Structure to design on (567 residues):
């Protein structure tokens, strides 16, 4: 007590100020580190069922049980050298992709729910989205590669082959196309791609996918009486369109 | 050198003050080091179980022995365990984790409430071995502190951890914790995390004695608060204490050895005591011993005040 009364009010407030300044400075540096780490996450391909990145970052306790459960040693925990928030699980598809186990062993062991236990069908996983660099894809150069298509576990749904006819002197191209509604982001295509650097890569969809937005409407996709006439026979669902679109320009055309 | 040639100054209990002498015999040394050796065995044993389950696939009755790591784990695929401080941070980010990890955190919290909060620090945490090595080296080399720092700063770091978890939306300490980095790298393979651990080592060795564990670590601060309720405590047998100070010399948290408070409570009551048991081995009078809080009888009258008054007179 003797010590305390010896401290003047001025000293007391100075010390309070020093303490607060120290805490604030430390807190600023600390939060800078945290936000820098959090910013690195768009480049992480997460295990199946991972929550949206911000929620995943908040919820993952970094225990590595998903890594232990993975039978193919696909999953790793990030280290300081990975450029991904330390301790969180990720995988590098080019090295070892996700083989899409039907029982998804990595998900139910997650103790916090950072991997969503509601994921029961691995086909519903969205670990990422395969993107093709058509300038370096062998198929897009006219070679009959199609390896990604053949390796794809969701062949025909996630990756399809489209037939591109060309001029008479050249044979047609058979090019792979990725469909985001089915691609799980497993990365088997990326691992299988025979080019020196993979021409098909898995990325977080946010990095590559655009969004049309509400200010454009694709009229032909809207089910209104007017649009029915654009549909092929038998496809029309709504009531038949009244013949309002017919005038002298298209009268009598089939 | 002959102890009888020196005038023996009696302690406050009237008994002569005897310094601690390391026994010559191996058995005697073992007796002094018994808690230290047991602690190392537990620390390394826990590490081994985690390591062997991940790396060598150790199983018992077809179940993984101890999967995960110190942040969250499962014993025999049945008993969930989780770091309650990590779970608290996750909850402060505004996310409600699954029941499994909540149950695991409750279990661990109950365990450390019974054993002494900072039993985590002295008996399980892998960084303890690093900072103990730094402390041992600095004693050998006679390095002085670069500056003084209040040991209460850890509670500020604890508060910052909780505030930053709310503000940044990520578990603030889990993202930078050298404890988790060391533990993970010991299990999954060494990478750059050793630099953080080296930082802690050098800080403890050259800058501040017991700098990390005794001043800064928010997890230690968290468990110090938990430890206020601990059942397992160091019993303090007041009449035998000669105030020789040997315990405070080896204690990594010497402020907990406030002998006046210890005499009043009959035990070391501070939550900052990590139950490491160093003091037990070096106490020449056998004043300190582990006991359960409820078995420790409070002294009937303040026995230390009497000799104090006599000394003052």
């Amino acid at each position: 007590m003797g010590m305390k009364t010896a401290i003047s009010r001025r000293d007391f407030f100075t010390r309070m100020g020093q303490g607060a300044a120290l805490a604030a400075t430390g807190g600023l540096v600390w939060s800078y580190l945290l936000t820098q780490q959090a910013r690195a996450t768009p480049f992480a391909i997460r295990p199946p069922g991972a929550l949206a990145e911000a929620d995943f970052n908040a919820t993952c306790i970094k225990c590595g049980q998903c890594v232990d459960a993975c039978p193919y040693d696909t999953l790793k925990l990030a280290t300081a050298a990975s450029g991904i928030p330390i301790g969180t699980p990720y995988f590098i598809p080019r090295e070892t992709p996700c083989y899409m186990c039907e029982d998804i062993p990595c998900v139910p062991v997650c103790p916090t729910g950072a991997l969503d236990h509601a994921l029961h069908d691995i086909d519903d996983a969205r670990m990422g989205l395969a993107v093709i660099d058509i300038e370096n894809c062998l198929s897009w150069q006219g070679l009959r590669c199609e390896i990604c298509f053949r390796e794809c576990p969701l062949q025909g749904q996630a990756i399809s082959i489209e037939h591109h006819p060309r001029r008479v002197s050249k044979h047609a191209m058979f090019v792979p196309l990725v469909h985001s509604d089915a691609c799980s982001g497993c990365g088997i295509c990326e691992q299988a791609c025979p080019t020196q650097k993979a021409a098909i890569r898995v990325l977080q969809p946010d990095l590559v996918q655009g969004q049309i937005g509400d200010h454009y409407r694709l009229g032909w996709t809207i089910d209104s009486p007017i649009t029915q006439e654009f549909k092929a026979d038998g496809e029309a669902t709504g009531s038949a369109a009244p013949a309002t679109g017919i005038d002298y320009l298209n009268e009598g055309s089939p | 050198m002959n102890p009888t040639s020196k005038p023996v100054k009696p302690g406050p209990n009237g008994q002569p003050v005897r310094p601690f002498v390391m026994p010559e015999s191996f058995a005697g040394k073992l007796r002094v080091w018994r808690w230290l050796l047991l602690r190392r065995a537990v620390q390394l044993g826990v590490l081994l179980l985690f390591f062997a389950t991940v790396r060598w696939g150790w199983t018992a009755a077809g179940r993984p022995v101890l999967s995960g790591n110190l942040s969250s784990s499962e014993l025999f695929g049945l008993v969930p365990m989780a770091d309650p401080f990590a779970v608290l941070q996750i909850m402060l980010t505004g996310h409600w984790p699954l029941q499994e990890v909540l149950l695991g955190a409750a279990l661990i919290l109950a365990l450390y409430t019974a054993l002494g909060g900072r039993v985590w620090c002295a008996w399980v945490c892998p960084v303890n071995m690093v900072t103990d090595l730094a402390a041992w080296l600095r004693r050998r080399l006679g390095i002085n502190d670069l500056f003084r720092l209040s040991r209460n700063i850890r509670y500020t770091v604890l508060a910052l951890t909780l505030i930053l978890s709310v503000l940044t939306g990520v578990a603030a300490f889990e993202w930078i914790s050298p404890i988790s980095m060391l533990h993970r790298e010991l299990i999954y393979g060494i990478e750059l995390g050793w630099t953080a651990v080296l930082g802690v080592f050098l800080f403890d060795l050259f800058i501040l004695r017991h700098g990390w564990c005794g001043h800064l670590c928010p997890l230690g601060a968290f468990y110090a608060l938990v430890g206020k309720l601990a059942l397992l405590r160091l019993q303090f047998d007041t009449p035998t204490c000669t105030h020789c100070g040997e315990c405070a010399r080896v204690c990594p948290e010497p402020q907990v050895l406030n002998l006046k408070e210890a005499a009043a409570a009959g035990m070391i009551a501070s939550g900052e005591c990590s139950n490491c048991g160093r003091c037990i081995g070096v106490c020449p009078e056998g004043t300190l011993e582990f006991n359960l809080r409820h078995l420790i009888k409070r002294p009937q009258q303040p026995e230390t005040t009497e000799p104090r008054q006599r000394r003052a007179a």
Summary: The helical segments of chain A are 2-6, 9-39, 53-59, 65-69, 147-151, 188-192, 205-208. The interface with chain B takes residues 19, 22-23, 26-27, 30-31, 33-35, 37-38, 54-55, 57-59, 61-65, 67-69, 76-77, 79-82, 85-87, 109-113, 117 of chain A (CB under 8 Å).
